[in-house]
UniProtKB/TrEMBL annotation:
Signal peptide: 1-18
Entry superkingdom: Bacteria
Sequence ranges assigned to domain Peptidoglycan beta-N-acetylmuramidase NamZ N-terminal in this UniProt record: 41-238
Official protein name in the record: Uncharacterized conserved protein YbbC, DUF1343 family
GO molecular function, one term: peptidoglycan beta-N-acetylmuramidase activity
Sequence ranges assigned to domain Peptidoglycan beta-N-acetylmuramidase NamZ C-terminal in this UniProt record: 242-392
InterPro entries listed in its UniProt record: NamZ (IPR008302), NamZ_C (IPR048503), NamZ_N (IPR048502)
Keywords: Signal
Pfam family, one: NamZ_N
Length: 393
């Protein structure tokens, strides 16, 4: 089919001005199905793992593939767990296949589990940010496969935020939301990132994983790509996906990003900004999405970015830090701006930004240009290194 729909969560992703539709790695069954025949298969997948709008698990089972185990990342296989919530092992009610959580007590499959498999598949939609945990899970599954001599097939998908920007992570701030010396937006697909993990020695003992990337067809990094399904509970619209690299930094402040509403990561606000901004929203507890949101049941005042021109961010190729500068200047109690200790949801701007200097610069009143200059020469060095691993123009 060549029909192109622009609404999120339905049908085929919009592919901009491409002459031919984008085909994800998963869509190209002929490229990997023969490798699965007669094999005991493990899959690291979630609700974004689709073939033509249908779950890849259901599709492959219909085709006779012997799927023995499903491994689930943050939010779980069905994406019904809140941000940061531990996810337990379970049996998938629809297929009867064991689901093993890799977002809880452990981060990668055991030797016993991998010994029961012949091959692994990774197929998860990423959003191209250092603090989005899918790339951590990718590295962990690569490491486990390398340690146990298993091949990993990566079904690649486009990166909706395929630009490179932000400070390079200072590894003394390594954490669950930043584990690699990369900028905020790394500018790669997961297939490309896997090649970087191998090439830069980012696994234990610099071990290398045998990977096979099924490339996205008819895709270049400068293409717009609308995700066919939300990648996580609080990235539920295309607007939220495109604003996420800029707004997630506010997790390290007293400013709400709309968790606890039906418009997360498209609004910014706090109770103390009343009288400064007219726009208002009230976070509430939403089970499975935002159970204890910041400023729960309090009216927040701030910015409504639901109609912001995100194409401008994409065209500029820059994380939008002007909002952080603006809201810090506007906030009445500046000593509390970077203090999340009074909220139910914890955050630390140093770990999100990846450097301590960012917070210091905002407090000191540095301009956006001055802040950006401080990201060099690290950012330029990363861009040069990145070129070695690119699969797409």
């Amino acid at each position: 089919m060549r029909l192109r729909f622009v609404l999120l969560l339905i049908a085929i992703p919009f592919t901009g001005l491409a002459k031919d539709p984008i085909l994800t790695g998963a869509d190209q069954l002929s490229a990997y199905l023969p490798s699965l025949k007669g094999k005991k298969v493990g899959m690291l997948v979630n609700q974004t793992s689709l073939i033509g709008g249908k779950s890849i698990v259901d599709s492959l089972l219909t085709l006779g593939v012997n799927i023995k185990m499903i491994f689930g990342p943050e939010h779980g296989f069905r994406a019904n767990a809140s941000n940061g919530a531990k996810v337990a092992d379970e049996i998938d009610a629809k297929t009867g296949i064991p689901i093993i959580s890799l977002y809880g007590a452990r981060k990668k499959p055991t030797k016993k589990e991998l010994d029961a498999l012949d091959i692994m598949i990774f197929d998860i939609q990423d959003v191209g940010c250092r603090f989005y945990t899918n790339i951590n899970t990718l590295r962990d599954i690569m490491e486990a496969c390398a340690e146990n001599g298993k091949e990993l097939i990566i079904l690649d998908r486009p990166n909706p935020n395929a630009y490179v920007d932000g400070p390079i992570l200072d590894m003394k701030y390594k954490s669950g939301i930043g584990q690699f010396p990369i900028p905020i937006t790394h500018g790669m697909t997961v297939g490309e990132f896997a090649q970087m993990v191998n090439g830069e020695g980012w696994m234990a003992g610099k071990i290398k994983c045998k990977i096979r990337v099924i490339k996205v067809k008819n895709y270049t990094h400068d293409m717009d790509y609308t995700l066919p399904v939300g990648p996580s509970p609080n990235l539920n619209t295309q607007q939220s996906v495109l604003l996420y690299p800029s707004l997630c930094l506010f997790e390290g402040t007293i400013i709400s990003q709309g968790r606890g509403t039906q418009m997360p990561f498209t609004v910014l606000g706090a109770p103390l900004l009343k009288g400064i901004y007219p726009f208002t929203f009230t976070p509430v507890s939403i089970p499975g999405k935002s159970e204890t949101p910041l400023h729960q049941d309090q009216a927040c005042y701030g910015l409504d970015l639901r109609n912001y021109n995100t194409a401008a961010i994409r065209k500029a190729g820059k994380v939008h830090i002007a909002w952080m500068i603006e809201m810090y200047k506007a906030y009445p109690d500046k000593a509390k701006f970077f203090d999340r200790s009074q909220s139910k949801q914890m955050g630390n701007i140093d770990f999100l930004a990846g450097v301590a200097k960012f917070k210091e610069q905002i407090i000191a009143g540095k301009s956006e240009e001055e802040i950006r200059q401080s990201w060099e020469p690290g950012l330029s060095a990363y861009k040069k290194m990145r070129k070695k691993y690119l699969l797409y123009p």
